[in-house]
Every structure is written in C-alpha cells, then in structure tokens.
Design a protein that fits this description.
This protein is an all-alpha fold. 85% of the residues lie in helices and 0% in strands. The chain has one domain (2-189).
C-alpha cells in the first residue's frame, strides 16, 4: 500500500520540479510586496490543482471517445515528458516574458507548475492507481510547492542559486528516467 502510494506521489513530485520553478518565481516576485506575492502564489497553486484535475477527468473521457488506449498515452506521454526533461537539462526552465496581473495563473500556474510533465504524469498515475492515491499525491505536492515558494527567499539564501539549479537538473534527469519507464510500460502493454 505504501509502495503504491509512493509510486503515485514521487513521479508527481519530480514532475512538479518546484526547485526548477524557484529561481523564476524569485526573479519575478522580488519587487512585489508580501500581499501580491501571496496572491500570485495562491493563484498559481489553485490553477495547477484545477488544471491537473480537469486534465485527468476530461482527458480520460476524450481518450476513450477517440479510442486512445492507456498504452498509447503511456508512450506519447513518456515521449513528451522525456523531451521536456531533456530541454530542461540542456536549457533550463524558460522564463516568463513579463510579470503582470495574471502572473500567478499564466505562466506560474500553467505551464511552469502544471506543465506537460505534470499533466502527462497525472494521467498515467490516475490510470494506474486508485483515485484517492492520485488526489492525495496531488494535494501533497501542491502543499510542498506552497511551502517551497512561500519560503523561497529563505531557501535560496540557505542553499544558494547554484545548488538550486543543480537540484533542478537532477530532477530533470529523474523525470527523463520516469519518461523512459512510461514508454517501456506502454510498449510492453501492446
């Protein structure tokens, strides 16, 4: 039971890659007062949660309607996740063009927090484990994102920008490995 839960939690944790989002968040909220930072953070986490839930609920129905099997999605999702991970390994996270009133929703909520890796991983976890495992994993990951981003200044001072960037790259490598596992499972299922 614990193993199954961890297999639903860990891929989402790695896919969220909150440490990779941390430098972007700090850069674009540095000049904001605490109230605006908190509002953008709340908006981003709500957006990531709602988009992830909608994607797994609606996405599953759309896949069934179109005749797309879970094996098809495992392979396609694995490829998308792999490409995203490799891009992040080579280039790092893309930075938003400018901060605005909706910065918490776009680009922070989606695609930085709930990007292709999170959405594809969500669909796969949703299909392979009980619903409540996915829901608990998603909520715990949203809470972790809140903690890391809320205390972003402290974390950056504690770890330093280089260590945060290095950890983000390690997470990207783990995401690439998880993507290969998804592709392998999809191919084995055919």
């Amino acid at each position: 039971m614990i193993d199954a839960f961890l297999l639903s939690f860990i891929p989402l944790f790695v896919a969220f890659d909150v440490l990779g989002v941390l430098p972007v968040y700090i850069k674009f909220t540095a000049s904001m007062d605490r109230e605006n930072r908190t509002r953008h953070l709340r908006d981003s986490l709500l957006t990531a949660f709602i988009i992830s839930m909608l994607f797994v609920i609606v996405g599953n129905r759309v896949m069934t309607y179109l005749g797309i099997s879970m094996q098809d999605f495992l392979v396609a999702g694995g490829i998308v996740i792999f490409i995203t991970a490799i891009r992040d390994l080579i280039q790092g996270h893309g930075e938003p063009v400018q901060e605005n009133e909706f910065f918490g929703v776009v680009p922070l909520g989606i695609p930085l927090l709930a990007g292709p890796a999170v959405l594809a991983t969500s669909m796969i976890v949703w299909s392979q484990y009980p619903f409540y495992y996915y829901l608990i994993s998603l909520v715990l990951n949203i809470i972790i994102c809140w903690i890391v981003l809320y205390f972003s200044d402290f974390i950056l001072k504690l770890l330093g920008r280089r260590i945060v960037e290095a950890l983000s790259r390690v997470f990207s490598l783990i995401i690439a490995s998880i993507a290969i596992m998804f592709i392998r499972k999809g191919i084995q299922g055919f």
